[in-house]
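Forwarding these from the shared drive since the link keeps breaking.
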Amino acid sequence: MAFLFFATTASIKKTQVRKSRLLHGRDINIYSETDTLPVIGTTRIRTSGHRVLVLKGNLHAQGTRFESLRGVASGVSRAIIHSRGGSAQNNVCGGPRNNNSDEQVVIKAIADFNGASHRASRSGDLSSNLVLSPLSLEVALAMLSAGAGGKTQTQIQSALSLPQDQCQIRSGFNQLLAQLNKESAVTLKVFDAVYVDRRSSVQQSFITVAHQYYSAEVAQEDFRTNPSAAIVDINDWVAQATNGTITDIVGPDTVTSDTRLVLVNAIYFKGAWKVPFNPSLTTRDRFYSDNTTFTKVLTMHTIGHFLYSDNKALQSHILALNYQGENVKLVIVLPYQRDGLDNFETLLNTIDQLQLGNLKDTYVDVSLPKFKITMTQELTPLLKQLGVTDAFSSAANFSGISNSTDLKIGSVVQKAYIKVDENGTEAAAATAVAISTRLAVVTTLEAVQFNADHPFAFVLLHSPTNTVFFIGRVVQPLANAPVVLSQTTEDGEIEVRISVG
């Protein structure tokens, strides 16, 4: 999920909503003050004193109500903008167009950004777990670029590997997001939201682009006099969209009385394995952090036909685990050597190097530790490393968002979560039992051993579009669970049980 926060010290005019009396829990149409915008959408609201609080709503073109989703993977990024200015224009593109080439341009840009963000992320702590959603960050920043101008816009689009044609960017994302949200075999949803300060003179053209091309929900907040209420509203929206996996994405250090606009992108995934793991076969096995030191972690086991390859260029075994419907895959990259993850990440420059097209149907005996990762990352250094510098300085140009001449980004933060267990999802729990007899069948086929007993990388992707949702590394599976630490010595194995809370 990605959040972009805009704060300004400039005086801002109040943008009004036509309806002045709103009833608790009632569906209403929201219009702009000047009627130059179409109906933004239908939203479910409730009132709190004189403050209108958007509780639930879906401002997509169909006007359907927002439904909270559930999943095993979610991501959040956010950026805070303070003041500055220039001259930017929101080009009129004539509405979403049906041009497949636009979508392909965006898909390629996302793939390139995956590689760039992965390389940049290596500047952090390589000895710890990592989960990052480049797609979440890309969508949020692409929406932001619609309100940027001049060098600021050029730097953002270049860092994202996007073309300079805003109409092509908007059309491409509009088509891609529509395709991703059509998945039915798994829960796969991409949400966008724009929170506007009710006193701010945010450009209506920017709101139109956010809604029309990114299907963004639009809500007003009283950032100036009641930022704490805005914090609650935004955090509640995030928690609902991610089934509680992402909480407290914003706080008083990020949303203040100077905040004027918040952009949010949320990606939420939940899918059941096509071939589930039988929980009765899960055992506590060794997981090596190096050649001698290991922990005992809960490890899942299954055997069956999977897509697999031996990638000698990356010195790694690659396994793809399908979710129901087979359009979404979890790709596990297991280096040959126990301490080979650092070398793999050095060799990997683009996702294309995984050569997923070369994966073959193979009979594989799989051992994979259960893992869960939650992390918050400050992505400002990453973006600056990729060339986005003006947006964070007094040279920033966000005049396509507001007439204010002193807007700038304060910070960009992403909070992400991923959980992998036997079922893949709660909805698939019943099917996990059904496979137990199949696992017990004796076969004469020789299975390839895929034993993830040391640090590995993972990629969660959408196969039809080759769009990567999450990338990461597992160095400490279930790091917060009780573990058994062991050290192998010449005198034998010394074992100490500890509990990590």
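-- next protein --
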Amino acid sequence: MTGRWLVAPLAMIVALVIAPPVADACRCRPPAPAKAAAGADVVFVGTVTAVDAPAVGRGVVGTVAVDRVWKGQVGTTVSIHDSPTSCGRGLTAGERLIVMARRDGDRLTVRQCDGTQRATAKVERLLTRRLGAPRAPS
């Protein structure tokens, strides 16, 4: 009789120990800046000046004042669309970013795992070595 009472708790412990962890498709190791830049349609540095609250299922839209551009064509002020999924990067007004975005029709979209990151002198130097000197936005 005692054996039956031990089987159920032991089975639960075994199931918990060997159960696979919950998947989080959005956890990623940030790609190397050069690799991320190669996969992006536009690469630029700028400051987020405003963040609009998302409409349901639309994601956050940030307005960015563009300082310099390494790749692609962008104006002095652009809107970037954060992914509406849980894979969004998250945007904060006042944050200075190196944006590595993809064109989705007439929109620029950033995602957590695509390489957009806080601007640092180190990454800016690396991008300049890989992509050439940045230019002013058009």
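The domain at 32-131 is CATH 2.40.50.120 (OB fold (Dihydrolipoamide Acetyltransferase, E2P)). Residues 75 and 138 are 5 Å apart (CA to CA).

- D.
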